[in-house]
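Narrative of activities, Objective 1.

The group set out to show that a structural description can be obtained from nothing but a protein's sequence at a throughput compatible with the screening campaign. Below is one input-output pair from the validation batch, recorded exactly as produced.
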Amino acid sequence: MFSFRQRQFIRCWLFFSAFIPSALSQNTAALSGIVTAQDDGKPIAAAIVQAVRSTPIPAVAFNTVSAANGSFSFSKMPAGTYRLCVQAQGTAFLNPCDWDLGRNSLKSPIAPSGTTAANEVIIAAAQQRANFALKVKRGTVVQINLNDSGQLAAASASPSAPGVGKGAPHVMLGVIVPGGLIRPLTQVSKSAASSVHQAVIPFDTPVKLSVYSGQLQLAHEDGKPIAEKGDAIDISRKTGSPVPKPVVVNITGRKP
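Output recorded for this entry:
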């Protein structure tokens, strides 16, 4: 004979287990395709491809790396509308989740009032979606040099510095993408007195570099101080323009 607690446990287990097959059956969709350059159609290998479900809530994300022929695949996906993001380190390809805001006429049955972007795909329950063409635009690489001749950033990282924890960020550099978000730069090299960063941006689009530090005084290459609240530096590039000089930011002192 079962006790009252045992009977309650069995009832709860039977109730929730009835939903398990249904929940699992909803994660049987799959998506595969090829990521290529939009301009010449060549495959992009070794790129991080991410599928992020935007609707319905909760958000779900899947990650993979494209093969030598640009192919990628995801499995065990729940139904929904997904945005496909591409990060190809060491190249001039733009992440469509940051820059491709173009819209087409594809209507979403999950969100009827919205439309999907060129890098979005709608996956139905148990659907096996194949041959998705993920085309990525090519941009231009902008280099940013952060100079710290006095090695003040390293000194500020000391645990003895008031209000600063070891390893805390001291100069925040990022590109302001559409929508107002700030994407951090890619650091390509670093020494005690300087670091080199890169950003991939589209041509013929207004783009600004966000520069700020809560602990350090900063200045432009010409010596003009950067405001206490930081600055947004124009790094826009026109098609056909010559390779620009690196943007230089100098660390000149510590804030009181």
